[in-house]
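testing teh design pipeline on a random one, pls ignore if ur not involved
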């Protein structure tokens, strides 16, 4: 009877806490039209959606785009408040040029928000397939570029003081051997974001981590996944190809192209909340798969976690031909 009473009390406390949190997170900041935000990676995907949403809310948006086409598309689609900037986060010179543009525009008001969204998926395949150059290319954008952008724009954020929103991934908490360079970069994003949050809190700047799972963006389109996998496969030696076999590739493709990708607008809404809510979360585990499946898996003992992954997600760890 005492156990049931305790469980009932815990259920009541959890319900009260959940309702209080929901109510608290509903409040939005006043005078959003006075705030300026820089978003990287706005050509497509999450960044493009967020830039449009914030522009509609009246914020001043600096949208960093890698390509001229991305700049032109946003300039045509959005209001004059939104200022597209051609920006390559893997180039320090490009980041510095973008900083000078934003600094001249915001002047003494500073920058309210920095959204580090730019990212690439990188090569797909077994953990031993990608080259060191492959790892370097992914890290240059997903991690080192994020660090460079953050360090460069911190002086403007201190003037507000503002918020930093870093787009990580479920892959930064639960590593799959078929996307190792991506996972390594996102684990780095998690570590950098945690250290940044604790280190600059005293300046009044808050840091918020976005952790999406499988969402439909250009980097996971079927054609792009297929091309990436075949490009990596073609670079392998004949001995490695024979060791893994064609079935290994087919199993990976089947898993990536299973059609279970979700609407990326959900992620853009989480990023918007991190920027505009009066009481934002420090970490956003976006959608139920991340919150109730992937992240809880990381709390299990390591061997049990590996077993459950093989059981629930066999396509992530297909068996090479030589090991069958």
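output:
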């Amino acid at each position: 009877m005492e156990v049931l009473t305790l469980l009932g009390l815990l259920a009541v406390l959890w319900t009260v806490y959940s309702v209080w949190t929901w109510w608290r997170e509903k409040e939005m900041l006043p005078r959003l039209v006075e705030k300026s935000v820089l978003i990287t990676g706005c050509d497509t995907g999450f960044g493009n959606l967020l830039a449009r949403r914030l522009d509609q809310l009246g914020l001043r948006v600096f949208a960093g785009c890698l390509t001229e086409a991305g700049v032109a598309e946003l300039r045509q689609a959005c209001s004059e408040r939104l200022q597209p900037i051609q920006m390559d986060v893997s180039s320090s010179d490009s980041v510095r040029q973008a900083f000078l543009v934003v600094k001249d525009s915001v002047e003494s008001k500073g920058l309210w928000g920095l959204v580090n969204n730019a990212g690439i998926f990188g090569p797909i395949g077994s953990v031993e397939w990608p080259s060191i150059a492959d790892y370097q290319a992914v890290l240059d954008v997903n991690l080192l570029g994020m660090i460079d952008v953050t360090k460069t724009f911190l002086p403007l954020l201190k003037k507000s003081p503002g918020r930093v929103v870093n787009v990580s991934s479920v892959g930064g908490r639960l590593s799959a051997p078929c996307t190792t360079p991506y996972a390594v970069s996102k684990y780095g994003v998690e570590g950098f974001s945690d250290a940044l949050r604790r280190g600059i809190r005293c300046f009044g700047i808050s840091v918020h981590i976005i952790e999406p799972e499988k969402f439909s963006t250009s980097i996971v389109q079927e054609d792009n996944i297929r091309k990436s996998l075949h490009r990596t496969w073609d670079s392998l030696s004949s001995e490695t190809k024979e060791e893994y076999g064609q079935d290994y590739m087919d199993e990976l493709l089947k898993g990536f192209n299973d059609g279970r990708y979700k609407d990326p607008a959900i992620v853009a809404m989480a990023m918007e909340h991190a920027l505009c809510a009066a009481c934002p979360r420090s970490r956003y585990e976006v959608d139920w798969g991340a919150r109730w499946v992937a992240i809880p898996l990381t709390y299990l003992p390591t061997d049990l976690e590996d077993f459950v992954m093989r059981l629930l997600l066999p396509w992530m760890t297909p068996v090479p031909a030589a090991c069958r």
